[in-house]
Specification:
Layout lengths: L1 H28 L3 H12 L3 H9 L5 H20 L2 H4 L3 H24 L10 H26 L9 H4 L2 H26 L8 H14 L5
């Protein structure tokens, strides 16, 4: 653990040295509010693991911090501030590809952290794998929605003006909102039993199917 802690400290030294240089170049070229926010994000993001440790009462995982620092360096300091998107073809796609791995691991962690007993049982293989995949896809959808909302600030990271993706993003947003409302309804439904159970339309549909096809299944 001590070795990984030293590696993380070394990573931070390189990270902030490069970020200061990239931020200075970016602001000298174009000192906009959006670029200022990018600089601020680049300087604050390495603190995210420490904030999560304190909020969730977790022990430090220095390997996770090192991987997180390098990803933020690649995605923010290098890509957005230094101009990596223009320097390396398909850099955006490479970052999204790598983020899929990171968020999938996070999804697996969340699954077993919430599972009673937290045991790694073979019976969990399908559910955990599906949850992991869905978690990664959810992160991709939320990120695209964020980029779309950023386009209204004047910046256009999604090239909305050029490609006309507003209709697609609108579909994703309303679908995500519908899924969120259903998820909240499901959560409320499962929290209460008996006559006090709160259903709503979606849970009425679920319950009707459950009674007919799941409840008495052998």
């Amino acid at each position: 653990m001590e070795r990984m802690r030293r590696v993380r400290n070394g990573t931070l030294i390189f990270y902030y040295g490069f970020t200061v240089y990239a931020a200075a170049l970016r602001m000298l070229r174009e000192a906009t509010v959006y670029n200022g926010l990018l600089v601020l994000a680049a300087f604050l993001l390495p603190a995210v693991p420490h904030v999560l440790y304190r909020l969730c009462r977790l022990k430090p995982v220095y390997l996770l911090e090192v991987v997180f620092d390098w990803f933020v360096l690649a995605a923010v300091s290098f890509a957005s501030l230094f101009g990596g998107y223009e320097l390396i073809p398909y850099w955006d796609k490479i970052l999204h590809f790598l983020s899929g791995f990171l968020f999938a691991v996070l999804g697996t962690t969340v699954y077993f952290a919430q599972k009673p007993g937290h045991a790694l049982d073979p019976a969990d293989a399908f559910n955990a794998s599906l949850y992991t995949w869905m978690f990664a896809m959810m992160s991709a959808v939320l990120w695209e929605i964020w980029e779309y909302l950023v386009s209204f600030s004047g910046a256009d990271p999604q090239q909305v003006a050029l490609t006309g993706v507003a209709d697609t993003m609108g579909d994703m947003i309303v679908c995500t909102i519908g899924g969120l409302i259903t998820a909240v309804s499901c959560w409320r439904y499962l929290r209460h039993v008996g006559e006090n159970r709160r259903k709503g339309l979606m849970m009425h549909l679920f319950e009707a199917y459950y009674r007919e096809n799941i409840q008495n299944r052998n």
